[in-house]
Design brief:
By secondary structure, this protein is an alpha/beta fold. α1 links the parallel β1 and β2. It folds into two domains: 111 residues, 3-Layer(aba) Sandwich (Rossmann fold); 70 residues, Arc Repressor Mutant, subunit A (Orthogonal Bundle), CATH 1.10.10.
């Protein structure tokens, strides 16, 4: 994907379920709530048998399988889901369990998530694997998610105080290109328009306010004489 391509998030109001979460409530409950808070249809089931039944009924484009799923080993469940089609399958494993990670990948997992995982990490994994899977009015980078219609900003499923329109647009441009640099001229054109280009200190003021809003989550770094870079903290 080119450096200017916009990240495309996982969301679709036309589907009954966009993400099927499989595993114990300790793994799926909070993430399910976060995804629903982002407007993403989710269903969570505790067992492998339930997962296969719901998979056939709902045909969700994405399945997240916890290694703690009841009644079947995660690699066996991943393999069974993979035999049913091209669904994106993400397996949740502990960071230090390399052996299990290898087995689920060999079984057909599209990617891995490590505990503790969040709605943001699920969305980021989908974008990395298949950015054209579903298209909607949302953009994400790590745990940061923007609703481009409602002008809202969320971090790990938690909505932040609504920023002013120009701050939101500045964040949108930086986020879509992150972690690459966006030049001052690009920011002026994208946020203010070619005919109303602001002074450098106007951009700096808005960047400083965003930096404060995202403190502890992301940083907005000024590259003197060139532009700005958004990176995760």
């Amino acid at each position: 994907m080119s450096s200017t391509a916009a990240p495309v998030p996982l969301v679709s109001h036309s589907r009954a379920v966009a993400v099927l979460l499989v595993g114990p409530a300790a793994d799926t409950h909070e993430v399910g709530d976060q995804l629903r808070g982002e407007g993403i249809p989710v269903e969570a089931v505790p067992s492998g048998l339930d997962a296969l039944v719901r998979l056939g009924a709902l045909a969700p484009p994405v399945v997240v399988v916890s290694c703690g799923v009841e009644d079947v080993a995660a690699p066996d469940l991943v393999a069974a889901i993979r035999r049913n089609g091209d669904t994106l399958i993400f397996a949740v494993v502990d960071a230090d369990d390399a052996a299990l990670a290898g087995r689920v990948v060999l079984a057909g997992a599209s990617g891995l998530l490590t505990r503790p995982f969040t709605a943001g990490s699920v969305l980021a994994a989908v974008e990395r694997t298949d950015p054209d899977l579903l298209r909607h009015d949302r953009a994400t980078y790590g745990p940061i998610s923007l609703d481009l219609d409602a002008y809202t900003v969320s971090v790990s499923g938690r909505r932040l105080a609504d920023p002013p329109a120009k701050e939101f647009e500045l964040l949108r441009v930086l986020l879509r290109r992150a972690p690459e640099l966006v030049t001052d001229d690009e920011l002026r054109s994208s946020v203010w328009g070619a005919d109303t280009a602001p002074a450098d200190n106007t951009i700096a003021v808005h960047a400083a306010r965003l930096r404060h809003r995202l403190e502890g989550v992301a940083t907005i770094r000024r590259v003197r004489g060139r532009g700005y870079v958004l990176t995760l903290a």
